[in-house]
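Section 3.1 - Work completed
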Amino acid sequence: MSKKSKSSQSGEASSWWAQAEPEGVFSSLIGGYDVNDFFTKTWEREPLIFPGSKAQRQGSLTQLFSRECLDRILKKDRIDFGLHLNTCRLVDGQRENLNPNENPESGEPIRATSKRVWKLFDGERATLQFHQPQQFQESLWRLCSALESYFGCLVGSNIYMTPGGAQGLAPHHDDVEVFIIQLEGKKHWRLYSPVEVLARTCSDDLDASEIGEPTHDIVLEAGDVMYFPRGTVHQADTPADVPHSTHITISTFQNWTYGDLLRMALPDALESALRDSSAVAFRQGLPRSVMSSAGSAHAHNVDQRSDSSLEHVTGKLSSLVQLLTKYLQPSAAVDELNVDFLRSRLPPPPAGSPASQEQEQDAPAAKRKKTKAGKEDRDVVDLTNESGAGDPVGPKPSASSKVCLLHRNHVHVSIGADLNAGDDVDDPDFEFGSDDSDLDDAEIADINDEDDEGNDDSAVGLGAGLGFLVGGDGDDEEDGDDDDIDPAAACFIHYDFDNNRRFHMTSGAHNNIPLSSVKLPLTAAPAVGKLLAQLTPLALSDLGLGGEDALDLATKLWAVGLLSAH
């Protein structure tokens, strides 16, 4: 490995958000504060300010975002009012939205050009709220991706830019855990006790009479970081003695609770109970009088007839809920949550040093796909495999290779049925055959072409020796028929390499694209587990498979960018 220049090393050292390990990124975010103390004493409990590491962070703050960054993006990319950028101001306690109206002829949003935006900012003293800038700025892509790997759930961001002496938003609370990073200027914050602890939804604008006195009144300067839990009421203004303030709001843990896990787990648990021949209580009939004496009219004392049926039904349901715990399978529900997360999260950022602002300035604008009518579709930006994470890395594995799993934070392994099965996608009928260690460059290109088309749920065989094919005997017809495979006898490696960062934290049909996955026989699961657990290269002979099967597995994972060989 070649040594990096001193300038390169110092540049990377200042980019705390570009560290290789997510744990290091989070530790730097909270200024070296004890992580265990943070999660046991502060997380989901109370706000906390981290002023101690300004010197560490300030060197790379302008690389994260700045007024110049926004101006560059406005000139380079298609940014629309309402979709990507909101403009507003607070006047006499009332919020005024300043977004231009939609185009009256086409009904499409108005493009937020540099000229329009700075006229609103400098002339109308509007606050700029730039939604999900990680879709456009590589440094924020790296930061949010690292934090997604750290928290194991989606992480979004918003940029807020406010002129001096102005305020954009009224007091309100959000439904996410929040980290504020002050990037430019200063911001005066007032925090209030929650109206609802760990709020499930965002609030409307709140009146002063609803929020009481501040629990925290503080000015954040460039380099300061502040955390507060979801439900914390807050408002912020820019002091008049600075030209403007820029801060980034990092948000996470939206709808990521025990209640959400139960929402996933309970339907399957109830179905298992109903199918259990010994669980007769779940299949007993309802009382004859349930329709006339146990409805909402009885619950609200509108119907004064006997409420014995209502009491009976309530008691019976309570007892069944207790019995239902026997059938809960949290591992299956966690698989569903994780696959949903991988389907929506940011793909891995590019390898190597983060791009400088000058490099991002010179980079070509994202290609846009064309609709059948030949018109540009602003909602479909072609950034598939933008980072190259899905391409083979290094030499093809050989029998003497040591191998290492790549991007393990962007991978989830599940055992059982295909978690992509509910998606409306065509089966690519893609198969390598049993001698995959001899894959040539053209065949590798074919594999990646399948990935680029979204047909990623590829049934990857390890050869008949691993029992992937039912009765596998080399017969071509049986080899290509996935319907003969017992779905319970499969191991799936799901990965997010083909996610498009321009769709990150947005809603729409693109979120239903099936997740990329490799399908393996259950007998390969222990070897996959070893690859997941081992952080340093592992000899193929240590995977616990036969020599040919180990090489076959390594070659398949290498071909889709999941593994490197040394």
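Second construct:
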Amino acid sequence: MGNGCSGNRKSTMIDISSSQKSSAFKQPHSSELSASSHETAPDSSGKAEVAATVEQASGRSAIAGSVTSVPSSERSQTKQKSEFETVDNLPKTGAAEAPSAAATRLRVLLGNVDKGEMPTATDLKGCLDYAATVLESVSKTKPYARENGPKITLRGVVHAVRMHVKLKTFFKQRTGPQYVPRYPQAVRELFQTMNEWSFDVFYLNRVSHLQPLRYLGFEVFRKYDLMSKFEISGRVLDAFLIQIESGYNRHSNPYHNAAHAADVTQATHSLLWQTGLMNWLTDLEVLSSLLAAMIHDLEHTGTTNTFHIISRSEIALLYNDKSVLENYHLSTAFRLMRQEECNILSNLAKEEFSEVRTFVIDMVLATDMSFHFQQLNEMKSVISEATGPESIDKAKALAFCLHCCDISNPAREWNVHSSFTEHLMEEFFLQGDREKKLGLPCSPLCDRSSTLVPESQVGFIDFIVKPLFDSLKDMLDTILPLSTEFQTMGDIAEDPREGDSAADAETQHKHAIWIETVINNCVSNRDYWKKRCRTKPVVSATEDDRSETRVSDSQASEFKLDDTKQNQSIILEQPRPRSMPEDGQLRLPALVAVGQPKSIGPPKLPEIQTVEKQG
């Protein structure tokens, strides 16, 4: 160590003696000199030699200081050496900026050495001492002990990556703008009346360019904020609705198409919204109700369950003649949601998905008309024994509501009801034509030459539709009693006991107003059909009393109401009978697109197989 220090001191002395530039370096204080000398030269001889060197440098600096003119090179060197300040002016060794400051001083020192410009011993020692102290301070900081932390495994890394992707998608959906399809201007204006029972789905079909279900379904989900509540991507919902609409138009049916699905969806929404029934339901049950309405007739073949059973079609064999079409609609819809780009239920928990699936299945199966009287009698029994809203089974109530909305055409205003009647009767007649070609007996209401549309409509309203909505009224009165307050999205009805009269109390409750409008439409449409009947039905003095109403013999043969033989009563598998203009000619407005959309899911229906007529 002595040799090393001696060599350094020798080179320093040579540098000072050969150059008259010592004035560029700051003169050390005596205390600094003493400390530096003690650290670099532990022996007394070393101290004396360093002291002599410093004294020599000080003398020469004094001589240089007496010169009035300093060369430019010396001024430049003075500027470079100004970075060597005392340690007191530097950051503390434990500060965050200390390593950067130490590195800067060392870099300047190296640069000067390359140029052959050496600082004084004090500056050199101060620079090195500061850098060493900073390094010691940094080395004392203990790094993160990996052995004390969680063990990293491949499974953990994969889980972390998946969680990152899921959180990224979640926050993108939450914070980013939600995708909304571009509505035509006329559609946006029409949606201002979407809550009303008088909504015209035929006008929506025209202004939406034959995409009524796509736009109405999306808007309904937005209205209930279901996309945010269940993390449904707007693009996924739009893709799902496009595929559903394509499935409805697969067979180019006059009646069971996308317009009918949009009509039932809007009717379900109006029922939930206008009556306040949605406040009795959970968000998951509202989602189930609207989803069931959208898919309840998906890929309908334009024929009845009876036709599939008699003709031994593939889906009749697949579902063992039990609710053939209803099972097929459900299977097709849930198969579609197995596709990632169309799975609107992908972010539901397992329990939530199971609950939605159960609700949807029960509701769609309840649209099978062969269970009409059974369902009606069960609801009457439940209502008669009910002691309050909590005694009503929600699954049965929702299934009953969808069944009402599915056959609600006679409860619409006349222009909508009569248009749907024309399309339905044409679909019936097409089935009758097909049955004749196959040598099968023609189903009731399917023979063009003998069906009396007005008479069938009077019987259908009197014996099917109006009793159904009468029971719906009783159910709503039980769930939403007039003596309690309930809210319909911001509009709070007042307690009827605060009103001036019973009439005022009734008008304050939206569900009473809504159901009254629906039932009045049924009555007015029935009366209109009666005026068109070719064989006038015999009506008792109390015309509004259904039990006293009698119809013609030909009509009664089609509308037997023997509850003990429900499967042999009115042709309940048939889509609902409807209407015909006064001249007896059907004029169908353009309702479905030209061409046959691609099917959206298995099983693909082949041409209906039939057996040869026996005998």
